[in-house]
Amino acid sequence: MIHPIFNSASKQNLSLIGDAAASASRQVSAANNEIQSVKADIEKLLMITEALWSLLKDQHGYSDEELAKRVEEIDMRDGKLDGKVSSPPTQCPSCNRPVSRKRPTCFYCGMEIKADLFER
Q1: Which residues contact 15 (CB under 8 A, 6 or more apart)?
Q2: pTM to 2 decimals?
Q3: Is the pLDDT of residue 40 over 90?
Q4: What is the pLDDT at residue 109?
Q5: How confident is the model over 76-85, as pLDDT tens digits?
Q6: What CA–CA distance (Å, rounded) separates 104 from 112?
Q7: How many C-alpha atoms does 8 have within 13 Å on its Cβ side?
Q8: Cα distances (Å, whole numbers) of residue 40 to 2, 54, 113
Q9: Which residues pair with 112 in a beta bridge?
């Protein structure tokens, strides 16, 4: 026979494990929903990009080669041909130290860094 204290503790542990599993399941479901939403957004962006490119080709006579060259130029802005758009750090207007474009303030002096609307 199992001791009553052990049995009670085991039930409590099983309950905690069940709660943790249910929470993990909800988190996985939410992550999957987010992934599906991002995939849908990507598909929309791909269609928009293709439509814009076809308009530029049809109305202005640009070629696929010109587009490929421009894509390569943009890719090389950071000095690496890696298929990624990277932005070099910006300079703090107050202390002139490099600041990541992702930071809203300078790490060194605390100055607010205003981001350009079209910056990544």
Answers
A1: none
A2: 0.58
A3: yes
A4: 95
A5: 887 889 998 8
A6: 6
A7: 3
A8: 54, 21, 32
A9: 105
